[in-house]
Amino acid sequence: MTTSTIQIIKSNQTRISEVDFNNIPFGRIFTDHMFVADYENGEWKNMKIMPTGKFEVHPANIAWHYGQAIFEGMKASKDIHGRPLLFRPEMHAKRINASAHRMCMPAFPEDLFVEALHELVYLDQAWIPPIEGSALYIRPFMIATEEAIGVKISNSFRLFIICCPAGPYYGFPIKLKAEDKYIRAADGGVGEAKAAGNYAASLYPTQLAVQEGYNQVMWLDAREFKYIQEVGTMNIFFVIDGTVVTPSTTGSILRGITRNSIITLLKDKGINVETRPITIDEVLESYKKGKLTEVFGSGTAAVIAYVKEIGYKSETIELNPDTFKIASMIKNTINGIRNGTIEDKFNWTVPATPQS
Question: Which residues contact 55 (CB under 8 A, 6 or more apart)?
């Protein structure tokens, strides 16, 4: 249950004049305001939008020691009329609660989550970059706040929503290393949740891949190192003989909202799409037979990232992103829906408006 509505405390001074929208480092510059809510004694309270700033945390905070921390990633854009738009906010509300459930954290009321997004994005809409391919990146996250040493479920939590202007996440085709030693997640684990620890576990193998000249890791399954799961920051798609194939979400793969949008768009356009297990051997064989024509990643930050190379042991797959037709069509369609230049027949976008 909830005990209060959202209080809005506006900043006395904006920092937007300091921002060069043509040169935005991802995740480094934050808007004037943030949303904060506390969970105590079984209820959410103290919900407010306030100036973005630091907060005090006790060194015994359970989140630091035992990893009760989850997050979401969203984007807001502007249409051709200058209206701020949210993209599928209800799905993000459901997904953060699915992550919360897996990590023994309290669900946040979905209607209040969406309301907070409306209020915050509307208030900070001037921070939405006016440049094509850029957007306002929105980061909701929840952490445990109980002060205790001991492996247990925290009895208090804090939910934040912070925002930062962002340019294209991958402004270039990328190279992936199919990882055959380290794993991201296993069936029965927390791979389906956007848990902070998943990303901490990926840092070392990703660092090794970068040292070898790759941009990201493409994860294989934890049992046989055979079935493709996802990329470090994205879901993954393969175009094989005209059919788009993406790994099925079986518990160890994140249920990407951009992934879901792509599957919907492909079906709407009459393009055959399969969500099923796919092995690295199938991808290699398809490449050698000339049937693999495109590989691309998808995610909120990246939208669509073209893959130009995949390395697996002694094998290398090389592709020419300039020839990608399906990936470029999907990218242009999603961006067009987000900026209002393409009809949103699925009602994915909603103007951010004050709710009070």
Answer: 36
